Every structure is written in structure tokens, then in C-alpha cells.
Amino acid sequence: MSHDSTHSDEPLNWGAAFFGWIVPGLGQVSIGHARRGILAGVGILGLFLGGLLIGGVDCVDRHEDPLWFYAQAGSGPIALAADWANSALLKTGKVGELVETPSSMPRAAPMLVSSFKTVTPANEIGTLYCALAGLMNLVVIFDALKRRPLERDDSTKGHAR
Known about the structure:
Elements: H1 5-8, H2 14-22, H3 26-30, H4 34-55, H5 66-72, H6 77-90, E1 98-101, E2 111-114, H7 121-146
Antiparallel strand pairs: 1-2
């Protein structure tokens, strides 16, 4: 089996990887693979937004579910925005009212949670969807990091065919 040393010596596309984290699929678009980037971005954002629709915005929570949040953060700033909405709006009572819930620990004070907090399996499914979107985006980011940029053919510009 031969090893192709020319492919491994190519520089990594760090800018494309960064753009791919900011907006899923933008890394591929920035190196000339527009169709691949658009399809990946639509799939990842669709999965993440589907998770928010199924489980509610409280399925992205870096304080209560930090390990799940690490996976969700792969989706980019949209995960950070969802976590902010959960922390700043739901947990403070600015949206909905805060209600007392019994603690699972005996002699512990009751906890206050938002009336919009979902405690059904739908929340778990939403958490899973958002985490899968983040992990999928990491794969797309690594693809943009190693993929060869398309060569732009400037010789045919301006010539009518």
C-alpha cells in the first residue's frame, strides 16, 4: 500500500474550520464547495432547530447538563444563544413564572423552576437532537479543515460561451 505524501503535506484550512463553527457549512462554502456546505448547513441547523422545537429551549443547558452542552456547542453560536435564552429568560422568570418543585433530597429546600420547563421524554429527545447536530458539525468542520480548496478558473471569466 502506498502513502500519498503530497496530500498529507497540504496546509490545514484553519479559516474554513473557524467559519464552519460560526455558521455550519460556511467552511465548505469558503473553500469553494458551496453545494456541500449548503447541504451540511441545512442539515445541521435543521436538526438543531428541530431539537429546540421538540424539547424547548431548556434542552440546551450548560449548568444542568454540561456534558450534553459540550456536544451541543459544536453547532456554534446558536447553541450559546439557546443556552443564554434558557439562563436569562426561563431560569430568571422573565418568561413564564417560577414554581416550587419538591427536592429529591430530604430536608432540602424546594427548587424554583420555570413553568415552561419540560420534564418529559420530549426534552431528552430535544437534548439528543441538539447534541447530534453539534457532533455532526464537528465532522463537517474537520472535513473543511482537511479538504482541498477548489481551484478558481479565472481564465474563463469575461468570456461568453
